[in-house]
Amino acid sequence: MGRTGPPRSSPSRMVLSDRVAHPSRRDTEGRESRAPRHRSAGPFGGMNQTFARIRERTPDRTSRYAEARGGKDKRGDRKDERRTKAMKMQSSLATISYGHRTRTKASVAEVESFDQFDLLPSIKEAMSNDVLKGMVDIKPTPIQRLAIPALLGQDTGRRSSRIKDSNGRQEFLLAAETGSGKTLAYLLPAVDALKKAEAADPAIAAYREYFDKQMAAMREPGYTGPREFEPHPTAARPKVVVLVPTAELVDQVGRVAKALSHEVKFRASLFSANISAKVINASMYSPTGIDLVVATPHLLSSMADSDPNILSRVSHLVVDEADSLFDRSFSPVTTAILDRALPSMKQLVLCSATIPKRLDSYLASEFPDMIRLTTPNLHAIPRRVQLGVIDVSKDPYRNNKDLACADAIWSIGKDAPRFESSTPGEVDVKRIMVFVNEREKTQEVANYLVSKGIDAVALHRDTSEQRQSEMLDSFTTTGPMRADLAAAAIPPPGKGRRSLPNTKVIVATDLASRGIDTLAVRHVILYDVPHSTIDFIHRLGRAGRMGRRGRGVVLVGRNDRRDIVAEVRESMFMGQALI
Ligand SMILES: Nc1ncnc2c1ncn2[C@@H]1O[C@H](COP(=O)(O)OP(=O)(O)OP(=O)(O)O)[C@@H](O)[C@H]1O
Fold first, then answer.
1. Helices marked H in 175-246 — which ranges?
2. For residue 453, is it left (φ>0), alpha (ψ between -120 and 50) or beta?
3. Cβ atoms of 522 and 478 closer than 8 Å
4. Which ipTM value was assigned to this complex?
5. Does the pTM exceed 0.95?
6. Cα(376)–Cα(513) distance, rounded to whole angstroms?
7. Closest Cα partner for 51 from 16, 31, 24?
8. CB atoms within 10 A of CB 514
9. Where is the signal peptide (predicted)?
10. Closest ligand 1 atom, CA of 321?
11. Is the CB of 545 inside a 6 Å radius of any atom of ligand 1?
């Protein structure tokens, strides 16, 4: 474990790293690692490889673009330099040379099904019966193919995959694009390790024996002994802890863990501000014990303040949305949890779709042995997501973004195929996300949209919990959502109050919606031009998840940075990582 002592200055989330896949300089024997012998050019050059052998020197912009094009055209180089100027000035995202993405051993790259992983049979069963039920022909995604064997400790063809510190601990970074299945990539190996450790734990075996005996005794007629059970050895001491930044993500990741737990038989609990203290306490101190906790850092940290034993048995700590959780606001609590869990920890897994430069250097100094698993498309917005631009400074909007936003939503609703539902009399409901930069603006924009007959809700701390979760539910379920055709009929202008019931809209900041698995979203409207390319990635990443198509619309006003929008669009068109 590299980390000792208090953390240095915590990383900012504004500038993406160009060296995410940079491996530790040392190999298992402490030797300096050498440059790779083969490096393939082009955007797919890094595919089917599993080791990120990054050059010691960050490649310059010109050579990166030349490499991506597979040529050395001087004029093109100059054009690329100009093209990236605004993004460089903005300095929000950096590039990772495609030759440096994580390489996959051929046998791992060819994994076609979860059955091929060395996972417990009950986990494989749970995958098709409960977790991804209803899906046919499920194939692991690139990050799952990379991370699952590595986290299981299988030979992935990487020397560094065997690096452990003197306490047998390993640290991993999983860096892969939004909606690429990172949750299962870390959850399945953690649950596998949990069950294997449980089977080998003599205290748990002894408790099971005691429990069966006590149950049998209690069933005897005339039994007068105690009716309570001794506490389970795992009571209030989970083995796996997953940290996520928001209560919504606790629900989301918790749902996946619970779905797994039915078949695999472990006890998963969720701790967040949405769950009452009574429920949290009951599950924490349940006589049947606790195995896995999904929590927000603040809540878990305050629980650990009053009962330090809570983190005394953690073998697997996952920090999801790591760039948020190591950001200034979260870093003190996240690192406090990390420090407390350190003595028993066997695996630390950090996970994110965006790796800011400061997080990257923080990890390099605090966790120099961290194994970095990065996918070929990291920091790129997939080509299947298109980005359109509305110039709000021109007629008819004259810088009225509210009106432009409402118009964009109306045109999505009106253009939606009215009769695509298989049930006559019903229409499919389009789910749209609108992103603003400031939290205060969410309610204002939502109110305006409602005044224009649009079913919109602001996603922020003060939205009623019930309304918020109803709305989110309809955005995260995959199945089509129907509305009554009669209700959806759009009256012609001037005839009655216009309403658009075949759309549902959430207005949010990316912080409120980060990581939310909005599978049903095809359209994202960027009301404000995002402050950084990191925000572009997370916001547009709410659409086009898991191979789906998506469409973004950015509203560009008089004072907005058009050059940045143009560059992001071009990078998206070329399928390249943003910088
Ligand atoms: N192998 C697979 N095949 C099909 N669907 C999958 C597979 N793995 C995961 N999924 C589904 O893909 C969706 C996205 O997964 P997940 O939320 O883990 O993405 P993510 O990489 O964490 O995204 P983000 O960075 O935005 O948080 C989920 O609905 C999940 O159930």
1. 182-199, 202-219
2. left
3. no
4. 0.98
5. no
6. 25
7. 24
8. 26
9. none
10. 27
11. yes
